[in-house]
Amino acid sequence: MTESWLVPFLLILAKALGFLVALLISTAVLIYGERKVWAAVQLRRGPNVVGPWGVLQPFADFLKFILKEPIIPAGANKGVFVLAPFISAFVAMAAWAVIPANEGWVVADLNVGILYLFAVSSLGVYGIIMAGWASNSKYPFLSALRSAAQMVSYEVSIGFVIVTVLLCAGSLNLSEIVRAQDSDYGLFGWYWLPLFPMFIIFFVSALAETNRPPFDLVEAESELVAGYTVEYSSSLFLLQFLAELIAILTMSSMTAILFLGGWLPPFPIAPFTYVPGVVWFLLKAWSVVFMFSMVKAFVPRYRYDQLMRLGWKVFLPISLFMVVLVAAVLQFNQWMHAG
Amino acid sequence: MNLAVAFFYLFSALMIASAFMVIAARNPVHSVLFLILAFVNAAGLFLLLGAEFLAMILVVVYIGAVAVLFLFVVMMLDVDFAVLKQGFLQYLPIGALIGIIMVIELILVMSGWSASQASLGNAGAPTPPDVSNTLALGRVLYTKFVYFFQAAGLVLLTAMIGAIVLTLRHKSDVRRQDIGEQNARDRKQAVELKKIPFRTGV
User: Fold this and answer.
1) Whole-angstrom distance between the N-terminal and C-terminal Cα of chain A?
2) Which residue among A122, A151, A309 places its CB closest to the CB of B60?
3) Model pTM score
4) Which residues of A272-303 are buried (b: 16+ CB within 10 A; e: fewer)?
5) Residue B68 and residue A125: Cβ atoms within 8 Å?
6) Residue pLDDT, tens place only, A241-276
7) I want to staple A113 with a disulfide (CB 3.0 to 4.6 A). Which of A98, A147, A187, B99 is the partner?
């Protein structure tokens, strides 16, 4: 009787552990890769001291974070201050429970996978807002208020973008959404082409949702020093930092799944179909990550009122209109085929 | 013991405990954080019932948006905890009376509950296993109950318009930013090129 649940339980545990390890290695690659990309854009060399070509730099940083002394400010609300980074990191990692890296390579194949992802990414704001409040300091608090307003605003347009994808795919299951993009046209059948405006809106909103430049008002160093992480040090800072990086990976994977066909090969013909799906998935997700880095390298920071205007007065009306348009086109198609 | 039962008791116990802490916590921010914990556990209970769509919507709407705004407002309030606790015993009888009346009313309402024929039929025939939770909800929401659904939306719209009307003030002496006008400005309007003769100044 005990074996009936023990085997699936261990299987899920192994899967989750596998994803976690892959995720942590990916964050290390992300730190190194992003710094190299920015360096290349600015004609510098980037990290090049620790290890061959500096590849061990993220691990050296990691050791430094672990070994330094954590400092909790005397005026801070200690419980919430310590809890906030854990919530950030937990929520960021929890999103990966539903992301399919290949056909069947997923920890939990939920029916409402995309909603789960949306829900969990909207929880990311708590780590920031709690950290900002508990620090009991000016800059973190201002940063927390900014991030709360910013993330709630851009979630609205992300929600509508997801609705258009759902309408086309007819399912909330992430694997089903990828399968729905499988057609004879290869990469021209993926949703980036028919839903091109939504693809752009999703990418820009993902930048805002992860507090990345040009929307990094949350940690605008010229105004707020370092935003909500001013009072954090050592391993607690590491967790906040990790959560931010994992959120970037999550959003890139989400873009790859919703608009770039997940694990599907770009052309459904022989040499491309031999390559395992996970390679295509990684290639797509990392291309989006590369775009994230490039945007940081050459787009100047938005002003706060411009950010809010873009979210509420530009993206929201466009995405609302697109929801109606996509639904109308799909319904019209259905009538055409029926009649 | 069944795993689902164990999780039911876990979620329920956590939910009741955090609901109690909402009113027992000294710091209002802690109260809101406990309220969020209660919401999370409610979402867990929905999941156990097989109502996965409702669970996720609860997380997205209540935790992801409404509670963030709660937290936002409560964090900015400058509450003096000592003053807040002062009249506690004085107001206890009235508070208890209102609470008891509410409980009695709830019991009366729940005992006299009459379900419509349609929902009784649904209880007899739950959603077939091949239809997902979301699909089943959508099928009744946009067909049988479409008028109620739209009416609920209109009520919310009215509330939103009301809130905007109450807070919107047109001040004539405030300089407003016209983005369109700013973006329409071209080089000729913005920059004036002057030829300054050497050693004479402007």
Assistant:
1) 55
2) A122
3) 0.82
4) eeeeebeebbbebbbebbeebbebbeeeebbe
5) yes
6) 889 899 999 999 999 988 888 888 888 777 777 778
7) A98
By the CB < 8 Å criterion, does B75 face chain A? yes
**Model pLDDT for residues B107-154, shown as the tens digit of each residue:** 888 887 777 766 666 665 566 667 777 777 888 888 888 899 999 999
Q: Is B33 on the interface with A (CB under 8 A)?
A: yes
* Exposure b/e, A180-195, CB count within 10 A at least 16 = b: bbbeeebbebbbbebb
Per-residue b or e along A212-238, where b marks 16 or more CB atoms closer than 10 Å to that residue's CB: bbbbbbbbbeeebebbbbbbbbebbbb
- 3-state SS, residue A193: coil
Q: How far is the CA of A252 from the CAs of A37, A289, A330, B64, B153, in angstroms? A: 17, 6, 27, 21, 33
Task: Classify each residue of B22-35 as buried b or exposed e, where b means 16 or more C-beta atoms within 10 Å of its C-beta.
Answer: beebeebbbbbbbb
Please, how many CA atoms are within 13 Å of residue A306, restricted to the half-sphere of its CB? 11
3-state secondary structure of B115: coil
Which among A178, A200, A198 is positioned nearest to A190, based on CA atoms?
A: A178
**A277-298 and A234-259 helices, crossing angle to 10°:** 120
Question: Tokens 């009346």 sit at which residue?
Answer: B101
- The phi and psi torsions of A260 (rounded to 5 degrees) equal -115, 20
Partners of A115 on chain B (C-beta within 8 Å) are 53, 56-57, 60
Contact between chains at A123 and B63 (C-beta distance less than 8 A):
yes
DSSP 8-class letter at B175: P
Asked casually if ipTM beats, i.e. exceeds, 0.95, the reply is: no
